[in-house]
TrEMBL record:
Family as reported in the entry's similarity comment: Belongs to the UPF0276 family.
One Pfam family it belongs to: MbnB_TglH_ChrH
NCBIfam families given in the database record: PRK05409.1
Identification of the protein by name: UPF0276 protein GCM10011363_22350
InterPro entries assigned to the protein according to its UniProt record, in alphabetical order: MbnB/TglH/ChrH (IPR007801), Xyl_isomerase-like_sf (IPR036237)
PANTHER family tied to this protein: UPF0276 PROTEIN HI_1600 (PTHR42194:SF1)
Amino acid sequence: MPDASHAFPHLPHLPGVGYKAQHFTDIMTDPAPVGWLEIHAENYMGDGGRPLAQLRVLSERFPMSVHGVGLSIGGEGRLDPDHLARLKHLCDWLNPASFSEHLAWSTHDSHFLNDLLPLPYTSATLTRVADHIDEVQSLLGRRMLLENPSSYLAFAESTYSETDFLAEIVRRTGCGLLLDVNNVFVSATNLDYSPQGYIDAYPLDAVGEIHLGGHDEDEDDFGAPLLIDSHGREVVDPVWALLDYALAKSGPKPVLVEWDTDVPDWPVLADEARRASQALSRVLV
């Protein structure tokens, strides 16, 4: 497939949404207030077909962000060269404005685990993650963003806070960061710390995108609240408030609403994007 000559060099400081094929006609007809779109890389690594044809049409009109979920940046083994090659092929022809991945691991030996699993924050894991990011950035020829995880436990062996770990990754690799404020809220609730304190310590100057989405509420074995990052419902008011807090400190950023399961009709998702637009309007000057 030929290179995209229509590429947008940057994501705008506008709301974006995760693209789903059932919304194609609605987006092409009346996308407001959505100003950019995100795709999951692994859904577009095939050759040809209707999904790639629709993606090309969308990319001629909207800045695109490619979000990976399968690189296993935090894994102990080497990155999968076949997966990297497919990712490079996608980024070469689509030429997205942004590429991002998760601070997590999802592979062991030759097995792929259908989850994004946490890792301890130690010098050894920092070196491994930095080496993997260097490899990805060198191969793709572009800066990548690294997303903070949603956490359900803390590792006793960690010697860095998450924010210090991310800051050191940025210093060593030159990568950017994707701040997921729902993940901050989920982790802060599950591990009993202040989400605002986390934002205060976060290296906001490195942020290239902000994400937010819905989560599910549960209880742990002791009856304490347990939040699950699900991307399957509306964003709750405390997460919108945390977005306001982050934007007040960072200034305007591209803000994405994620909704990946139980995907609603377009008007519902567009309403979430309008709320993100309102949040951005409070800091745009």
